[in-house]
Amino acid sequence: MALNAGAAPDAIKTISDRQDPTADFANAASLGEGLRHARERSGKSLAELAAETKVHRRFLTALEQNDWSSLPSRVFALGYVRAYASALFLDEQLAVERFKRESPDTSVPLKAPIGIAFEDVKRHSPRIVAGVVAVVVAVIGWNVFQRASLHQAAHPSDIAAVPKTWVSGVDPDPQLALSAPMAAPPDQTTPQLYITPGLEAQLTGVDPAVIAAAANPEPVQKAFNPRGAVYGAPANASMVVIQAKTAGALVVRLGDGQALFARQMAPGEAWRAPIGVAATVDVSDPAAFDLYLNGEYGGPLAGVLTPLAQLNSRADQAAKQLAATQARAQVEAQAAQARTQAQTQTSAPSPTPTTPN
Question: Which residues pair with 306 in a beta bridge?
Fold first, then answer.
C-alpha cells in the first residue's frame, strides 16, 4: 500500500521499502525530533501539514522545536499532538504519552484519595438491603389495603322501568317537527375603496412616498441565533459576536500576549467580544466562523488574525448608520404629516358671512 499518493511515481515507496515510522518515532531523543524526522520522511512541508491538520503553522513549529511555552492551553496542545501524529500515520496515543512525559502538567496539584472503605460497605450492606425491602413491602401493603377498602359490591340501577319511548323510538311530543333546511344566503362582498390618483394624501392622510417606502423596506440581514454555549462578555456589553459554523480553534490574545479566551469551538458555539479591549482574534480557519455586528450577520472573518478594535469599529459605524437612517425616516414622516394637514386646511371651504335683516 502506498504511503504518499500525491508524490511522483518514482518517489512512491511501500511500507516494506522503508523502516517502520512508529519504531523510529519511539526511538527518537525527543517528541519534537521524532515528529520532525517523520515529517521529513513523508516529504510534507509545514504548510501542507498545517492545511491538512487545520493547526496553525507556528504551533507545528513549536511542537518540532519542543517549545512548549509557545503553545496555547494544555487541551489544545494535546489535540495538536494527536492531529500531527495522525497526519503522519504515527501512534497517536504514543505521541500523547510522550508529550505528557516531556511536558508534565504542574498546574493541577495531587488530591488526597477519597471514598468509603470496602469493609465499611460490607458491614452495613445487610442493614441497607433490609431497610429497602421493608420500605417496598410497606408501599405494596398500603396499596393493597387502599384497593380493598374502596372496593364496593355491584348494586342494581335506580331506574325502576325503561320508558316505552326509549324502546320504540316514538317522539314524545309529536307537535314538534323539523322542517327542510333553508338555502344559504347569497354571498356579499364589499367593494374596495377607490382612491383618485393624486389625492392619496387628502383621502388617506398619508404621503404616498411614505407608503412606497414601507412597501419596499431595506433588506434585513440574518440575525444571530445562539445554537450552543455563548462565552465572553454579557449581551448588553458587546457589539461583536463570533459564532462557529464548523469546529475550529479560537484564541483571543491581549497586547502583552496573554490569552483572554482560548477554546476549541464546537459548531453553534459563540463568543461575545468586549468593548474597548485591545486584543487580536486568532482562528484556525476563518471560513469556519461567522461574524455578527449588533445582532446582524456581517459575513465570515477576513483572515486568521483580526484586530478586535477593527471589528468593534465596524459595529459602531453600523449602529450609527442605522440610527441616522431611522432619524431621517422619522423626520420625513413628520414633514409629510405637516404637509397633509396644511393642504387639508387650505382646501376647506371658508364660512359664508350673514347679513342682518
Answer: 281
Whether the predicted pLDDT of 50 surpasses 60: yes
32 burial via Cβ count (<10 Å: 0-12, 13-18, 19+): buried
Considering only 104-108, 163-167, 264-268, which range has the smallest mean pLDDT?
163-167
Produce one character per residue of 225-237: b if its CB has 16 or more CB atoms within 10 Å, e if not. eeeeebebbeeee
Was domain 21-102 assigned CATH 3.20.20.60?
A: no
- Please choose, from the candidates 154, 45, 156, 24, the residue with its C-alpha nearest in 3D space to the C-alpha of residue 95: 24
**Distance between CA atoms of residues 75 and 98, nearest Å:** 15
The pLDDT, as a whole number, for residue 1 is: 39
Q: Which residues contact 255 (CB under 8 A, 6 or more apart)?
A: 278, 279
What sign has the CA pseudo-torsion 230, 235, 238, 240?
Answer: positive
Listed range (29-33, 83-87, 114-118, 133-137) with the worst mean pLDDT: 114-118
Q: Is the pTM of this model over 0.85?
A: no
What is d(CA 2, CA 17) in angstroms, rounded to the nearest whole number? 10
Give every CB contact of residue 194 below 8 A, 6+ residues apart in sequence: none
* Domain boundaries along the sequence of the chain: 21-102, 230-316
